[in-house]
C-alpha cells in the first residue's frame, strides 16, 4: 500500500509556506515548486500571520498536485514547526485511496499525528476502516481506538470486524484485540485477537473452512493454512476429517524459479479409521530447463489404490479412473537434432487387467530432415532405445533405427508431390534369448494441392470470406517381412504388411476480421475434413465375389469444427463403417459431438454426446447461469445410454454479495451422494475442495 497520509500532505502544505499574502484567492497555479508537477491551490480566503509564522486558508480549500487532492474547510500551517491542522470535512485522495475525517493534526516533519472520527479506504483490498480516533504512529502505521474494518461498501455493511484496539500497518496486517464479528451490526462471534492482511501481495494465514456430508466419506470438515514462502513459492497445508474414512493431511507446494522452471508438488495421506489401511496420493507437475539447455518435464502420479479415486474424485473421469501414468521427460536440442529421454510408468488399479509393459527408460534421437546440397531431396534419421520391463512377464531391450530420404516437387507451381523411402532396422535382446533383428523397408508418397477463392462479405467486422479446398492422396507400401522370431512385448513389436491408399478432402472457411482499431486478422469459421483408406492387400481379387472376411475400405472419418462467433462452437468427429467383417449393414464405429455457447457474462451451456460401438454411449451437459444475480448456478449431468442410468448429477449454487459469498454443492453419483457448504469473506481466500489435488478444481 502507498502512504496516503503525510507524504503528499507535507508536500502540498509546504508549498503554502512560499505563498505571498493573498486575500480573496480563487485559484493559484505553482508549476516549479517542490517537484516537476504543477500544484494548484484554490480557496475563498488565504491569509498570513508573520508573528505566528502560519498560513491560514479558508473556504473550500483544495490543493492539487498530480493525482493527489487535499480538501478541507480550513487549513493552518506553521512553517517553522511543521505542524498542520485541517478542520471540517477533511478529505485526502491519492489515486484510489481516501482518508477522511472531521479534524486532522499532523507534524509534517515527523509524519505523526491524529485524525478524529476518521475513515480510511484502501482500494486494493476494498478495505474500509473507521475509528473514533486514528493515531498516525509512522508513515505506514495507524492505531485506532474503537475501530472497525470491512470489505463491504455502504453505511451499514453486511459484515464487519470491530476491535477495542486496532493497529493497521500498510503493506502488512490489521491486528485487533477484543475483536467481534458483526453481521448487519449484530455481533455473532468473539475472538480475543485477530490478524487480517491489508497488503497487495499474497498473505499467509488460515483459509476459510469447508463443511459437508458424503455417503462414502460421512461427515466432512476441512481446514487449511496457506503459507507464503517467497515471492516465487507458496504452500498449502490441509487437515481433513472424514467420519467414515479417517483423518487426512495434505501438502501442496508451488514454485516458479525464473521464467523457465515452475511446478507443483502435492502430497496427501489418509489415516484410515475403523481398522482401514492408510492411503496416499502423490502428484508432481514440473516444466523447466536445467543447466546445459536440458529441458525437464515431469507428470508424476502415484496412488495407493483405485478406491482413492472413487472416494476423492469430484467429477466423472476422476472417480472412475482405473490407472495412473507417471512420466519424467528430458530433452536437448542442437538445431535440427533432438535427443529425448523419458521414464514412463503405467499402473493398472484393476487386478483383472494385464500388467502393462513399462519403458524404463526410453531414449529417442530425431534428426529433422536436411536438404541434400541444392537438390529437392532431404535426409532424416530417427532412432529409439527402450528397456522393456513387466512386473510379471518378459524383460528385454529394443532398439529401432530408421533413416529416410524424401523429396518435395512442385510441378506447375500448384501441385505438391512428396515421396519418401525409409528403412527400419529393429534389434531385440531378451533375457535368456539373445539377440534378434529384422529390417523393414517402406515407401510412401503424398500428392496434394490447395486452391481457393475470396468472396467480398460485409457484415459487422467481417470484410471478406476465404474458402480453401485441399485434396490429398497418400500411397504407402510396406512389404510382408517374417517377424515370428522376434519377441513380442506390445503391438508396436509387429509392423504388418501395408499396401494402402489414403485420400482426404479438407475445406476451410476463413473470415477476414477488420476491427475499428488495430490490424486485420483471419479467423477460421469452419474446418471440415473427410478421409478414408483403401487397403490393396485386402481388396478381393474378383470384384464380383467379395469375401466377407475382407474389408478393403477403412471407416470413413468426418471431422467438423465450427466457430461462427467467439461465443459459440460445434465440434464433430465420427467414423462410419460401411460394412463390418461379418457383413452387417453399415453403422457408426465412433460418434462424438460437442457444442456450446458462452455469452462472456457468466451464462454458458456445453453439451456432448460420446459413442463407441459395443463399448460406450453417454451424454454430458453443463449449464452455467448468472441470470439470477446475485445467485449463480452451475449444473452438471452425465447419463449412460447403454446402461440407462445417471452417472453423475451435480448442482453448485453461489450467493454472491459484494463482499461475501455462500457456496452450496449437491452431488449425486454412483454409490455416493454429497452435500458441501463453504463461506467466503471478501479479501479472505476460501478452501476449494477436500483431499489432495485430485479433488480440487
Q: What does the secondary structure layout of this molecule look like, with pairings?
A:
Elements: H1 6-16, E1 28-30, E2 39-42, E3 45-49, E4 54-65, E5 68-78, E6 83-94, E7 97-107, E8 112-122, E9 127-136, E10 141-150, E11 159-169, E12 173-183, E13 186-197, E14 205-206, E15 210-214, E16 218-230, E17 233-242, E18 246-257, E19 261-272, E20 279-290, E21 294-303, H2 307-312, E22 323-334, E23 337-348, E24 358-371, E25 377-389, E26 396-407, E27 416-430, E28 434-448, E29 451-459, E30 462-478, E31 498-513, E32 521-535, E33 556-565, E34 568-577, E35 587-598, E36 604-612, E37 616-625, E38 631-640, E39 645-656, E40 660-669, E41 672-681
Antiparallel strand pairs: 1-2, 2-4, 3-4, 4-5, 5-6, 6-7, 7-8, 8-9, 9-10, 10-11, 11-12, 12-13, 14-16, 15-16, 15-41, 16-17, 17-18, 18-19, 19-20, 20-21, 21-22, 22-23, 23-24, 24-25, 25-26, 26-27, 27-28, 28-30, 29-30, 30-31, 31-32, 32-33, 33-34, 34-35, 35-36, 36-37, 37-38, 38-39, 39-40, 40-41
Summed over residues and divided by their number, the pLDDT gives a mean of: 81
Strand content: over 45%
Shape annotation: elongated
- Number of helical regions: 2
Task: Assign the CATH superfamily of the domain at 6-197.
Answer: Lipopolysaccharide (LPS) transport protein A like domain
Helix content: under 10%
The total of beta strands comes to 41
Gap from first CA to last CA: 31 Å
Any idea of the CATH class of the domain at 6-197? Mainly Beta
Which architecture of the domain at 6-197 does the CATH hierarchy give at level 2? Answer: Sandwich
Low-confidence stretches: 1-36, 692-697
As for the CATH topology of the domain at 6-197, it is lipopolysaccharide transport protein A fold
Helix and strand composition category: mainly beta
Main beta-sheet annotation: 26 strands, antiparallel, barrel
What would you report as the Rg, rounded to the nearest angstrom?
36 Å
